[in-house]
Design a protein that fits this description.
This protein is α/β, with parallel strands linked by helices. It has 6 helices and 9 strands. Helix content is 33%, strand content 23%. The strands form 2 sheets. The chain has a 7-stranded mixed beta sheet, sandwiched between helices. A two-stranded antiparallel ribbon has the order 8-9. It is globular. The structure holds glycinamide ribonucleotide.
Length: 209
C-alpha cells in the first residue's frame, strides 16, 4: 500500500509496447491498483509511445546518447530526472532494450522490475525464445524480476511456463511467450502495488491476502 495515495508507475520501453498495453488495460479494468505516471522510450518512433499517447498519458522520447546497449551519463540523468519529477513509485521495464547502470539503479533501488521472455536464469540476453528453440527445451516461458546491476539477473518475482511445440518457429514460440507475459506482468505489478511482495535476498514471497 502507499498511504492511500495512488501507486505511480513509470514505464520504459523500446518496442511495440504490448506489455505496456496489457498493464494499461489491467489498470483500466481495476485489476492493478496503480496509475501510469509517465512512459519513456529511447526510440522516437516506438509503438509504446504511440499507445501511451492514444491513452492521453505523458509519453516522452529521451535520446539514449552515444552507446548501443546502455544510456550515456547525460541520458541517464535525463531519465532519472523525468521519473523523479513524475514521482514514480515503481519503474516497469516493458521491452526496454538497454542495460541500466549505477546512478539509475541507485536512484530507484529495489523499485525497478522487468519482464524477460524465458524462464530465468535460463536464456538471459537477446532473443531468448530463439535460444530456447536452439537448445531444444520442451518448456520455456517468461519471468518478471527485480532489476539489479546484472543482465536479467535480479530476484525473481513471478514466472509462467509455456510449452515448446514440435512445429514451433521462432515467431510462433515468441507469440506464445508474449501472451504469457501479458497475463503475468500485470499480476506481478498488482502484487507490488498492493504491498504484498516481500524480498529476502534472492527469494521473493507474496504475502497471503
Ligand atoms: C517482451 O517480450 C519482453 O520480454 C522483451 O521485449 C519484449 C517487448 O515487447 N524484453 C527483453 O527481452 C528484455 N531482456 P513489447 O514491446 O510488445 O512489450
Amino acid at each position: 500500500m502507499n498511504d492511500g495515495k495512488p501507486f505511480r508507475l513509470g514505464v520504459l520501453g523500446s518496442g511495440k509496447g504490448s506489455n505496456f498495453v496489457a498493464i494499461a488495460e489491467a489498470i483500466a479494468a481495476g485489476r492493478v491498483p496503480a496509475q501510469i505516471a509517465i512512459v519513456l522510450s529511447d526510440v522516437a518512433e516506438a509503438g509504446i509511445l504511440e499507445h501511451a499517447r492514444q491513452r492521453s498519458l505523458p509519453a516522452q522520447f529521451i535520446a539514449p546518447g552515444q552507446f548501443r546497449t546502455k544510456l550515456d551519463e547525460e541520458a541517464e540523468r535525463a531519465y532519472v530526472t523525468a521519473l523523479q519529477s513524475a514521482q514514480v513509485d515503481l519503474i516497469v521495464l516493458a521491452g526496454f532494450m538497454r542495460v541500466l547502470k549505477g546512478d539509475f539503479l541507485r536512484a530507484f533501488e529495489g523499485r525497478i522490475v522487468n519482464v524477460h521472455p524465458s524462464l530465468l536464469p535460463s536464456f538471459p540476453g537477446l532473443e531468448a525464445w530463439k535460444q530456447a528453440l536452439d537448445q531444444g527445451v520442451k518448456v520455456t516461458g517468461c519471468t518478471v524480476h527485480f532489476v539489479d546491476a546484472g543482465v536479467d539477473s535480479g530476484a525473481i518475482i513471478g514466472q509462467q511456463t509455456v510449452p515448446v511445440l514440435d512445429d514451433d518457429t521462432a515467431a510462433t514460440l515468441h507469440a506464445r511467450i508474449h501472451a504469457a507475459e501479458h497475463a503475468l506482468y500485470p499480476k506481478c505489478v498488482a502484487a507490488i502495488a498492493r504491498g504484498e511482495i516481500l524480498v529476502r535476498g534472492r527469494r521473493v514471497f507474496q504475502k497471503p491476502l
